[in-house]
Amino acid sequence: MIRFILERLKNFPSKWRLRKHLIQHWSQLGWYIDQATWEFGLPDRRLKPVPLETVFPGITKSSDQIQAENLWDRNRGTSLEVDELFVLLSIVKYNRSKRVLEVGTYDGNTAMNLAMNLPEEGKVVTLDFPAEKGVPLALAVQRSNLSPVGVIGRQLKNSQAASKVTLVREDTALLNWSDLPGPFDLVFIDGCHDFQYVKNDTEKALNVLAHRGIIIWHDYNLPGVGQFLDEFIQTYPSYWIQGTRFVVCRIERGD
C-alpha cells in the first residue's frame, strides 16, 4: 500500500495539486496507514501483533459455521471492520460461549451478530450510556467516542436475534454490574475509550467473568485504550491479534 501511494505521488504534475489532493483525502489515507499498523504494530505499544492461531490453536481450521447479518451496514473507522467481526465471532464459537457481555452498543451490529452465533439458550447483554443528552459522565470530562442517541441499538430492532439481546442504558461507572445476568464467558470492551473508563470497565468485567473466560478489547491503537492495556498486561498476559485492533486476554481462575 505504501509503495502504491509513493508511486502515485510521483506522477502528480505540481506540488500545489499534490498538497490539495492530500488535504482532500487525508482522512482516507490516514485510515489505510493506520490499518497497516494492525499488521506490524506500533513503536509506543508494549504488544506486537501475533496470528490468531497463536492465541487459539486450531481456530483457523475449525469447521464451525459462522453466521453474519448486515455486513455492509457499518461505518469505516467506527464500527468493527468485517474481518474483525469474523475474528470476534470465530473466538465466540471456539470458546463455546453462551453468555456474552458487550460494553459499547453503538448501532447494535456487533451485538446482533454475537447473538446469532450463540446456542439457542445463549444471551448477549450490551451496555451503553443513558439516552439523555448532556448527562455528565462519572469518570471522563469529555463525552468523546460516545454513540449518538438516535443510533444506539438501531440494527437490533428488525433482527431475528434481538430476542437474545438485552440493552442496558447506564453509565458503566455507576452501573451495579453484579445485577447483570453473569457470569459471562466472554466480555467485549468497546465503550468509552478514555483511560479511566477502560480501567473501570475492565475491573468490573473481571468480577463478572466466568472462571475460564475471555476479555477482548477493541481499539488498542488509540491512546486511552493502549495506555491502560500496556499497564494491564504486566499482571494479565494478553495478545494483540494481527490484522485487528483487538487485544485478547484468557482468564483461568480456580476460585
- Total number of domains: 2
CATH superfamily of the largest domain: Vaccinia Virus protein VP39
The number of distinct helices, counting runs of at least 4 residues, comes to 8
Q: State the end-to-end CA separation.
A: 49 Å
Please provide the count of β strands: 8
Instruction: Please tell me what the overall shape is.
Output: globular
Q: How large is the share of residues in beta strands? A: 15-25%
CATH topology of the largest domain: Rossmann fold
Q: What percentage of residues falls in helices of 4 or more residues?
A: 25-40%
Which architecture of the largest domain per CATH? 3-Layer(aba) Sandwich
**Stretches with pLDDT under 50, minimum 5 residues:** none
Helix and strand content put the structural class at alpha/beta
Radius of gyration: 19 Å
CATH class of the largest domain: Alpha Beta
Mean pLDDT: 90
Major sheet: order of its strands? 1-7-8-6-5-2-3-4
Polypeptide structure, described:
This protein has 255 residues and is α/β, with parallel strands linked by helices. The chain has 2 domains: 1-40, no CATH class; 47-252, 3-Layer(aba) Sandwich (Rossmann fold), CATH 3.40.50. Helices cover 33% and strands 16% of the residues. The protein has 8 helices and 8 strands. Strands 1-7-8-6-5-2-3-4 form an 8-stranded mixed beta sheet, with helices on both faces. Helix 7 (195-208) packs across helix 8. It is globular. It starts with a helix and ends with a strand.
Summarize the structure.
The chain is α/β, with parallel strands linked by helices and 255 residues long. The chain has helices at 2-10, 15-24, 26-40, 52-55, 82-94, 109-116, 195-208, 223-232, and strands spanning 49-50, 99-103, 123-128, 165-169, 184-189, 209-217, 239-241, 247-252.
